[in-house]
């Protein structure tokens, strides 16, 4: 049974607050183990990576086989059936087209004093993508991480993907190839993050590391942050669906389940202005849970964290959604645009009856790496911006310095930073001597 | 004596690598103390903040005096002299004009299948700025943090600034007023970060915390990250100056010293293609160090971390600069634009002889909060983007879903995510029945 809440009922605020503050993730504390692994890789390089891979992935590598060869990739890609290949190509093409529009512009202008100001964007030189092995080895995540990097102009793009016992998902390698990835290493865990951050004799270091992973990978990313850039640390997936009565309860049930099936810690919330419809959706979820392949996972998620919230009207639904700040927000109402204008905190919004969230996971075009755990209040999904950095530019003329330099000197003096002031003053004195 | 290096000399690579990997910051490990402070503030709210402020800042507050009153701010601002006020107003105006140009655009388009795609930007609802107390209580930093937040559209903007023994810098309060800050709390340290992140009965929580601080503040920001957004953790300041012989050695010396005087851990590097000029600058630095107010700090920084590197030509200078990825880069050469095109990693570039870095600290317009410790390889200075987040938008029509839905279903099946596939399939089936 999911949580049933009603904004008109006594005790709603307390129940909603409890829902909001529910701790869904109890990550094991692996920080000490990760610190040791990173230190080992920094000290012993390839040898440490090879030994740790033998230990954790039951795979014996050499410096020659740390990365897949071109021939190996070719052979794996050839195993992918035509239908899967076409689907993956469509996804890649649509993700690329969407992200190409995100490229920001450089700027340069001259102000009233003649000072030239501006900025320019440039890509990070090298990026590393972590791709989990085993069941959660998703080709779609390869596309979602690698394509924005290539669109941004990243020159060298590598993947670290563990292959426990040597098993690899051919679709992951095909996705890597379609995205323009240069090298795929068969390594994983904290040792892979350490190798990409610090480099080894065989693995060149990168400047930015993105991609999901288990508790070890997350802890390692936190530890190497500063040495390299990292993307967000993703938590369990979430969806909030706002739906009025004019929906097929089964469609909404499937949308809720498509988050719940990811993880027992995932959270699916339905907000509706019709109590009967809410009950109908809950019944439809139960019915689907009878047969769903991943019913153990989805059922646990729905039971522990699922919720049906009945509201007075859609404006109240938007208010609640803003307090949740969901990763995914579906607006299954007659006027989704109007409701969208009221929902100010969400990672991604899916508008109308014909936009199930799963479209966004694969082929919609927008990125599926999105802020979880209420962080949509202050952060955004993955984009080309994550692989770019901005350099600001300033160029004074003698006249511009004469106009604004005295104010800089004054503020430097007020902050007791004498050399700051003198560096301006020396130039102003030259100008006063007519020496420009 | 700073480090003298020459790219033509034997052992240059080793010496340069040593310079690059020099550990300049030895932050004390205050994490356990900070964890306790945060837990205390979460548990006891205002009372904990008041007790910790009495203990660390020797200041007795009540819930009524946690924040400055309007009358108190008014009275402090009245103490600021006309010249300082005018300088601060010019700085605020120029910073605002620069950052207004950074506002990104929303986008919405319809693709060939009729799918509507896009994104929109929105501000974080509330931001908190940390402003150190005492000597490093810089009004310019208030402007550099607060103005981008207001330009982004942040509704509620608060400052936490400790006032040890009750002492406050009137310029800080004037800068807060000029920037549109709503509330200034007289609290600091980890307790201020905790109060802004989690809220107390008196202090409402914010969504994003920015601003510099000591080791306690930095550790607290790391700990509350996730609950709120944070900006970068800034390290000691750095400058790299590329200068040819056609410069006044004293100007370049002052530019180097304007970083060195910040902190004994600051780093100033001159790269020149003329060995004699390099010696002349080093001599000019020594001469200025005889009289500079902060000569103890600047002298230690220059002695321990300063460097003069002689290169064969300016292209080699750009290569070295890219390996350093300096926070500040000054290009004092005949054609700074051409050299700028070669320098791909830098937080901010100052072009030509008339643009001392100090201009950028105060009145240039670009932000002075910039990536340190080589992180300009993958990150940018503070900007309006730090106070905005992006929501992606997707809206399928029945025809668009018919066109791209089957690929999504296929990929869902390949990833063993059945409910994902079914949420698409249920809608496609309706279409096939003619039910759109």
From TrEMBL, chains A, B:
Signal peptide: none annotated. One of its GO terms (molecular function) is histidinol dehydrogenase activity. The keyword Oxidoreductase applies. Its EC number is 1.1.1.23. Pathway: Amino-acid biosynthesis; L-histidine biosynthesis; L-histidine from 5-phospho-alpha-D-ribose 1-diphosphate: step 9/9. The lineage of its organism: Bacteria, Pseudomonadati, Pseudomonadota, Alphaproteobacteria, Rhodobacterales. NAD(+) binds at residues 130, 191, 214. Keywords: Amino-acid biosynthesis, Histidine biosynthesis, Metal-binding, NAD, Oxidoreductase, Zinc. This is Histidinol dehydrogenase. InterPro entries: Ald_DH/histidinol_DH (IPR016161), Histidinol_DH_CS (IPR001692), Histidinol_DH_monofunct (IPR022695), Hstdl_DH (IPR012131). Binds 1 zinc ion per subunit. Its cofactor is Zn(2+).
